[in-house]
Structure formats: C-alpha cells, structure tokens
Amino acid sequence: MSNFFPIFSKENESVFYNPDDLIDLFLDCTADGICMVDMENRFIRVNQMYTKIFGYTEDDLLGKRIDEFPYPDKANDIIESVKRGEAFTDMVTQRYHKDGTILDIAVSYSPFRNSCGEIIAVLAIFRDITKFINIERELKRTRELYKLITENTTDMIKVYSKDGKVVYASPSHEDGIGYTPDQLIGKTVYDLIIPEEIDQLKKVYQKLIETEEPQLLQTQVQTGNNEVIYSETMISPIFNEQGEIDFYVTVGRNITDRIKNDDTLRNLDRLSIIGQLAAGVAHEIRNPLTSLKGFSKLLTDTKNRDKQDEYLSIIMNELDRIDIIVNEFMSLAKPQAIQFEQVSLISILESTVNILHPQALLHNVQITNQYQQDDILLDCSPNQLKQVFVNFLKNAIESMPFGGNVDIHVQRVEGNRVQISFSDEGMGIDNELMRFLGTPFYTTKDKGIGLGLTVSNKIIQEHNGTMNIESKTGKGTTVKVELECF
C-alpha cells in the first residue's frame, strides 16, 4: 500500500489511489486536450478531450507519427525546438478536424522530462477557441462594415456622450456642414444649432428621455462657413448592460433644398386657393357695394336727421363687412414667416370660416360648428393651420354642388390633444381612389392642382399632429385632425 496515495472524500473517508490512476483521472477530467509525442514524433498518449476536439480515436492516433495527419509545417519546427528544451505557451494556430473542418486552437508545448532531467517526450496542451475567434471575426467584420458605412455615407453620423459632447463624427460632416471630424470632437450640440432652436431641441431631448425611443428633430444648423442650413436628424439612445443610456447616436442630413421645395409647393397651393376663392370674394364684396351706392344716394337726397343716421349705420356695417372679408383674404394671400406661437384654435377656425363664407354662399352650403365652451390654445403657426383648414372646407364645399351642410366639430381627446373634424354631405370618395389621396399632383377635380392634401399633411406633421380621412360613396367625407394643445 506504500506506493498508493490517500485522498479524503466528503465523508472524511480516505481512498487510496495508484499514482498512475491519478494521472489517468487528471488527463480524462481536464478541459484541455492533451497529447504526448515521443522523441520519434509518435503519439504515445492522448486524453478524451483531445479525441473530442479533433475527432480521432485513441486507436487512430497511438503509435502513429504526427506527419501522418494534417499538421502545419511550423508545428514540426516547434516540436524540434521543444526536444531541445524550449517551451511555447498560448500559441494561436489552426488545425484540422478529422472531418476536414478548420479549427482555431490555442496550444502550448513543453518538454517532458524523466526523473534524471532528460527530455523523453513532448507534451502539448490544446484548447478549442473556434467559437471565440469566430465572435472576434464577426465583431471585426461588423466594425469594418460600420467604419465603411460611416466613412462613405453622405448622412452625417455623430456619437454624443451623456453630457452632450461629440465623441465621434463621420467624415461626411466636412461636405455637409463644413467641419472636419476633428473640429467637431468635444463640441456640444448647442454649439452647432442656432440659438432660436434650443428650446425645440430641449423638448425633443426631454421626450427622448421619457420614452427612451428615437426622436426626429428638424432644426437649423450653423455651418463652418457661417451659413445656416436646415437639418433633419434622427436621435437614438444607446443603452449599456444595466439598461441605462450611455451614448446618443445622431444621423442627420441637409434638407435645405427639400425645405425650399416644400415652401414652393405651399405657395403654389396657397395661390391656387386664392385664385379659386377670388370669384366668391368678389361676389361677396359686390353685394355690400351695391348697398353702399344705394344708401349713399339716399343719404344725399334726404334732409331727415334720423334717416341720415340710419343710412350711415347701414353704410358703416357694410364697410365693416368688406373690411373683414378683405383682411381675411389678404392674410391668406400674404406670405409670412413661419413662427410658432400660442393661438386660440377657435379664432383660427372662425377666421377660416370667414374666408370661406363667400364660397359657401355661392354653393348654397351652410357651415355649422360645435365648439366646446372653454377655448383651446395651440402652439402653432396660425397662418399655416388656416391654410390647412381652408383646404378641408373648400374640398367639403366643392363636394356638394347642389348645396348641403358642413359641420366642424372640436373636442379634447386623451394626452393633451384636440381633435378637429370636418364633415360634409357630399358625394364621398371611392375606396379605390382613397389610397391615392395625398399623392402630389393627384386630384379628382377638373381645376385642382393636386397639392392641397400633400401640403396639408406636411403642415400637420410639422405640428406633431395626425390626419385621417374617412369617406363613403354617396354618404360624405370626414377629415379628422389631431393636434397637441394646452
């Protein structure tokens, strides 16, 4: 029993093992593949993990020379060096599985000595790292792909730290806004946008923090050449393993040309509306002018003071009526800068109805409204919303050539929003045609230019609103608009 070693179990009982048995247990239990090669390069020992890694059995290997198997030439040189006493650790190489598959292997070689210190074999320890190497290759390929995208895209890509400083900027910024990537590193987002846009940026950023979802921002940017351009930017949060926001990625593009085109389309639509309303306005003005001419003549013919006061009162009322019509018409016709301000929704709607009143009279259409008692404030561009509402009401009036009713309904909905509905009793729209609505220059009218709904939808989106159209042939059409309100 003296050649055996005791090992204590959990129950504190000693079990005696032969040293050779312990070596066998070690070789079979280790997570690495181990093989021993004698001085003639023959396999003399392999463990179970080695056969598992490479797919060979012990019978396939023992007694065979290593050059009988696919082996890199460099390995032969290394083995010869080990026989001379050198050791090699953690070498990353590639070897073949029995089925021909290429494996990524980490291998260490060391000389195996007897009790006299003589080298009698070479000990090699193998670890299959194919999975980890594949992950590294995929990461490298992904990085190279991202680098290729960011360095060649025309979109301007930036990465911001949590405190809002630029830590990466794509080369496209040099063409886009006149800054090199190095010039942008360390700048904050507030260094790039014009001061008037800061409040809007803060609102978008607050919404990003609350929802943790990407947000779209349209803003004006100061270029390196001291020019101002319009930029459309998608801001996305990047989360760490704890689910906290670590960085922000922005993808922006110069949309100055698009903004100019949008302005052109809006002006074209506005001028089209003015032209189509002109006949109605002229007709509405002609009526009070007739009264003015008649009562002016009566005024000069009478000496009665009471009659003069009565005629003057009528003349003043007619002049006020003309003044209202002309002012509303001119407010629609006159180009104005787009500025958001807090304005009463009801005042915008009433102004719109005043503009359309002559047109409604010509078509024998009655415009009715259902407003709530409390007024509703919008953060908006009133003239742009007026243009949208004029489009909807004009479409409703023209859909009823023999007269009818148009109903305007206003109600608050959930989430600090208001819904404005425009319902008519017109011919309705066929289901097949509904899908084309809003397509630029598509129209069902003989004299239309097909921009009304396109421009209206764009304006509504810029006001963080939505538009929905419901229609049934012969039953009429309802346009519903939802906007943010106070």
Short recap of the structure:
This protein is α+β, with helices and mostly antiparallel strands and 486 residues long. 42% of the residues lie in helices and 28% in strands.
Characterise the protein shown here.
The protein is an alpha+beta fold and 486 residues long. It has three domains: 31-133, PAS domain (Beta-Lactamase, 2-Layer Sandwich), CATH 3.30.450.20; 153-254, Beta-Lactamase (2-Layer Sandwich), CATH 3.30.450.20; 259-484, Heat Shock Protein 90 (2-Layer Sandwich), CATH 3.30.565.10. It is 42% helix and 28% strand. The protein has 14 helices and 19 strands. It has helices at residues 19-29, 48-54, 58-61, 73-83, 130-152, 173-177, 181-184, 198-211, 256-301, 305-333, 345-362, 382-398, 431-434, 452-462, and strands at residues 5-8, 14-17, 33-38, 43-46, 88-96, 102-113, 119-128, 156-161, 166-169, 215-222, 228-239, 245-254, 341-344, 365-370, 377-380, 404-413, 417-424, 466-472, 476-484. Strands 4-3-7-6-5 form a five-stranded antiparallel β-sheet. It has a five-stranded antiparallel β-sheet with strand order 9-8-12-11-10, with helices on both faces. The protein has a five-stranded mixed β-sheet with strand order 14-16-17-19-18, with helices on one face. α9 (256-301) packs across α11 (345-362).
